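fyi for ur records
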Amino acid sequence: MKKFRNKAWLPALLLGGLTAMIAFSGYARGGQTATAGEVKEDPFVVEYYYKAKWGHADEFLALFKKNHYPVLKKEMEMGRILRVSMTSPRLHATEDGRWDYRVTIVFKSAAVANDNFDTEALLRQLYPDQDSYKKEEQRRFEILEGHWDVPIKEVVLDKR
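which gave:
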């Protein structure tokens, strides 16, 4: 992440894009089912993994809760997101496989997850002091060693 430091566009690129981070629209459309002439899309689940620099996991969590979780909650109120949860491992892994937090977001559908929703108005409403917000979000990503997104699907084991 060092190559992105002190770039003015970093917060907008990384945070304005819950939906921009999910570039698997072709993959995602597999969850559609038709009933009585209508198309119903299944929820679309993405796991976001965060690996903080050693000693900075608590700082990352505090900044996430302060600046990003309220945006996700607002999107839940809007009906775009059905559920958000966060987990962390109880024990450690090898450094190459280590992650500190996994955020699971259940979107209403793949279409919603990929609709290029513009969060700018939402961010201005939630964070009137945009300068502080952008600095804190930049810091949140500066202390990361890695971040990756994994769209997931359920595998039904009892079907033949």
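The two ends are 45 Å apart (CA to CA). thats all i got for now
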